[in-house]
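Hello support,

Our group uses your service weekly, and this is the first time we've seen a run hang past the timeout. The protein is ribonuclease T1. I'm not sure whether the cause is the sequence or the server load. Input pasted verbatim:
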Amino acid sequence: MAGSKILSALLLATLSALNASAGPIEQRQACVATCGSICYWQKSVDEAVVAGYELHQAGETVGDNDYPHTFNNREGFDFAVAGPYQEFPMLNTFDPYTGGSPGPDRVVFNTAGEYAGAITHTGAGGNNFVECE
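Update from on-call engineer: The timeout came from a worker crash unrelated to the input. Re-ran successfully.
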């Protein structure tokens, strides 16, 4: 009986030490937009919107295609916020776009800086877009 109490105490001490050294449990982030096979977390989407909106507010653009630029929504997406809209690249490197190849993925925001949605050329015909999931 005394042996089982010692064993229980040792087990409890070991588990407590393991939990203390492991630190806090990290919460896994979920995809908020999946464009093709790329999963974008909220942080990446937010950073792209902020970068695009700051450029829009300053009247500046980057890249050969002058991003951000007007998104006319010819595809008829049903965004949660009203336009007019701007589009800005969202890169699969998860870094904010500063020029060069924009890749296929975009964030769309309105001129008030509100996130409207994520769209991609991946899986769309021609120069059209489809909504990211």
